[in-house]
Amino acid sequence: MLNKIKLWKNQQQSSSLHERMLQIEEQPVPSHVAIIMDGNGRWAKKRALPRVAGHHEGMKVVRKITRLASKMGINTLTLYAFSTENWKRPKTEVDYLLKLPEEFLGTFLPELIEENVRVTMMGYKENLPSYTINAIEKAIQDTKDNTGLVLNFALNYGSRAEIVDAVKRVLNDCQKGILESDEVNEDLFSSYLMTSDLTDPDLLIRTSGEIRLSNFMLWQLAYSEFWFTEVLWPDFSEQHFIEAIEAYQNRQRRFGGV
């Protein structure tokens, strides 16, 4: 009897998701969605599990949300996987986080290729272990010709460092005579950032109840819509993602205008 009830609930949930997806398709979806995947450690602590268990569970959510974003026709999904500040965490946790790309892409890469997803990365490869870099570079190479969703991992990434480095490169090009100072504007500066090949995010999602940017895409998020939720990342579901997209579609974007 309990199995029948569970099956009925799953069928109802699937039907509801399908109906909401059809409604979403009637309006423009955000071209670029960025997510700060927060709350893995707290999820594990609530269950008296090691923090790495939360990161492992969060990896499963990445798969679900990537599939859904691809199905929705979203062009780019940027995931804040590891920040330049995360090195301060306990070594066992850092080591596990840096092994996740190898584990994740090792099992999920064939599906990404089949789904026409293209993998990219932004961040600093310096200090990253070879197994992390090799896993990412293999995924980038194997999906480089795909034309669907861009799955962009922000790995060993920090926005302030990115901006400072961009300023240095602009100054260097000015000193070399490649640029004139009066040529420098917002569009040109953006071309010196790690996201030069991407559009700015239309929507930022952050989980776990934290309401801050945590040094993530500070320049690129200037006019993005923000959506915050108390839900911890390992509990983040397709329904939550759809809710975020619905909220975005119900907002009027003015970009500083009236």
CATH hierarchy: architecture of the domain at 30-158 and 200-249:
3-Layer(aba) Sandwich
Uncertain runs are none
Under CATH, the homologous superfamily of the domain at 30-158 and 200-249 reads: Decaprenyl diphosphate synthase-like
Content of β-strand: 5-15%
Mean pLDDT: 93
Give the beta-strand count: 6
Helix content: 40-55%
SSE string, helices as H and strands as E: HEHHEHEHEHHEEH
- Assign the structural class, choosing from mainly alpha, mainly beta, alpha/beta, alpha+beta, or little secondary structure: alpha/beta
Largest sheet, if any?
6 strands, parallel
Order of strands in the sheet with most strands: 3-4-2-1-5-6
Shape: globular
Query: Helical stretch count?
Result: 8
- The CATH topology of the domain at 30-158 and 200-249 corresponds to Undecaprenyl pyrophosphate synthetase
Task: Please describe what this structure looks like.
The chain is an alpha/beta fold and 258 residues long. It has a domain at 30-158 and 200-249: Undecaprenyl pyrophosphate synthetase (3-Layer(aba) Sandwich), CATH 3.40.1180.10. Helix content is 48%, strand content 13%. It has eight helices and six strands. The protein has helices at 2-24, 40-46, 51-72, 91-114, 130-142, 159-175, 186-190, 238-249, and strands spanning 32-36, 76-83, 118-122, 150-157, 203-206, 225-228. Strand 3, helix 5 and strand 4 form a beta-alpha-beta unit. Helix 4 packs parallel to helix 5. The radius of gyration is 20 Å and the shape is globular.
